[in-house]
């Protein structure tokens, strides 16, 4: 009986709220995104559809360059001119939620019929969680895996059905496929001095049990030593140290590298440029059967704490979240919770990346991720250029990280 | 009221108004950012207190953090190497070219104009071109050196720690030569021709004329060009961003790029400000010499 009254009351409140919304002034939501209006333009598509469903809500989208994102958001928070809703890259989310810049969604989620946070993959979920509260909803994710050129495998007498599973196999395969006379490297990846280097290295370390807060563990050291060996023996181009993932993968597409580590964002370009049978395998682990780990990319939709229309903003977040089954085919993101993707593009590659999502781990989470990431990529580069051995370089990185985390 | 208007139109008021405008401009666009920057280097700053003026004062803590970073001294010495080598070569080559184009031959002034093309190219575009030249696997330079048999193995110009800084220096020397050449040409044009003729009559050879006439007459121009060169070299950012991003392992990192990395990549704005204050101190010294060398120009 008590329950029934409660439902009735809630229902009445709901009706009241709806009439209030109907009579009130049209609500305007300011949304910041890094999407382009021209290409897939996730937020532009979502906003159009949402406004058709909710004519009383108007969405103004402002596009921010990804490179300027932090600056623009900084300025907005400092001057109190934050938007209602924004896209935030996943490692940067804790930075904002820890400082109280974002709206705590937990009470809204408790009443939501659309969002069930327990379904979200652990990686994306931990990127929006801070101190037990939820500060955003993933819009989609991405992760990395091992691309390989099946034609080159065959030509070298390797079985393309059996891509390398372990670090040792990866090394051996890369060695067999490297052919300096033909300008072919065995492997392409990125170990540059910014976020991408850390992004690529962390899964290797994490699959051995290490992580950013104990990055000098033996497993991480062994992982870095494998990287060293690959660079020293020129199984990957020395330019790996100054190249991002996209540039590195261009050499895979041009058949100047037989394998490459990168994410699903490569697929549109690869299907145009790569004139060979390209396949994808899960990232190798140190030993067969080890725990898997993969990197987590893409980000979250968040509501800023100072939003004047948190309810409407949350409705928009809910709507975007509910569209997860479409994100792969239309926008190239991997779903952040298990969905049934109908007729996915690049079905074989999708299957591998979708599985890899289960192992995708968040970077951090830490409000100081940018500094931590820099310490790790500096350590990686010191070891790869032999300014220090892997153990020393990672121990130095750990000391720096300890200083950041303790502060 | 009318007295004030009249004084504004032509009188002391006009002078004061003009000076006040210039002063206001300087205060708003130069002094304020400078002081703001210096203040930040003594404060605890994060992204969220960026808009406040009152922030926790931490004294020299940011500077101590800075000096304690393991890469501090290597970045400072990189900066010194970068500035010195760039200036020496830009000046020497620029001076050589200026003297060359000072000679009377057909098309001299057109050719000199063509050199300016390099200066017109935005540094970011120049960076993209040099990246293509220096690329390790498929770079133009490696291709040329290998096909002429000068080297047998590819040189990874941008990703070898011992070389990367020098690659950026080469690109920056190329970028700075036209500027040096033009300013020095202007200086050369200011030396009266009849002096040379008189000296030639007195039996001074070309070397003698260069050492005893051109160089002394050009002293203040060279001083000014050097000072401006130091400032421009310390400003060079785009080439680092497009060629090496300071890597690998900070081997080609310099103060100006580091300051940006600290502030806008690590969001460690206070330490980034501290780096720029150090640079500021150095630039003030250079600017002092610049002002002195141009003052001599007026007197001369």
TrEMBL record, chain A:
Recite the UniProt keywords alphabetically. Periplasm, Signal
Localization recorded for this chain is: Periplasm
Superkingdom of the organism of origin: Bacteria
Entry-linked Pfam families? SBP_bac_1
Q: Which residues form the signal peptide?
A: 1-24
The keyword Transferase is assigned to this record: no
User: What's this protein's family per the entry?
Assistant: Belongs to the bacterial solute-binding protein 1 family.
Q: What is this protein called?
A: ABC transporter substrate-binding protein
Source species of the chain: Kaistia terrae
Its taxonomic path starts at: Bacteria, Pseudomonadati, Pseudomonadota, Alphaproteobacteria, Hyphomicrobiales
From TrEMBL, chain B:
- List UniProt keywords, sorted A-Z: Cell membrane, Membrane, Transmembrane, Transmembrane helix, Transport
InterPro entries in UniProt: MetI-like (IPR000515), MetI-like_sf (IPR035906)
* Protein location: Cell membrane
Q: What is its main location?
A: membrane
Q: Which residues cross the membrane?
A: 16-39, 80-101, 113-135, 155-175, 217-237, 269-291
Mind telling me which CDD domains this protein's record contains? Answer: TM_PBP2
Superkingdom in the source lineage: Bacteria
Q: Name one Pfam family in it.
A: BPD_transp_1
Q: Which PROSITE patterns match?
A: ABC_TM1
Query: Which positions fall inside the ABC transmembrane type-1 domain?
Result: 76-290
Give membrane topology per the record: Multi-pass membrane protein
**Alphabetical list of Gene3D superfamilies matching this protein:** MetI-like
The family classification in the record reads: Belongs to the binding-protein-dependent transport system permease family.
PANTHER family for this protein? BLR7065 PROTEIN, SPERMIDINE_PUTRESCINE TRANSPORT SYSTEM PERMEASE PROTEIN
Full protein name: Carbohydrate ABC transporter permease
Organism name: Kaistia terrae
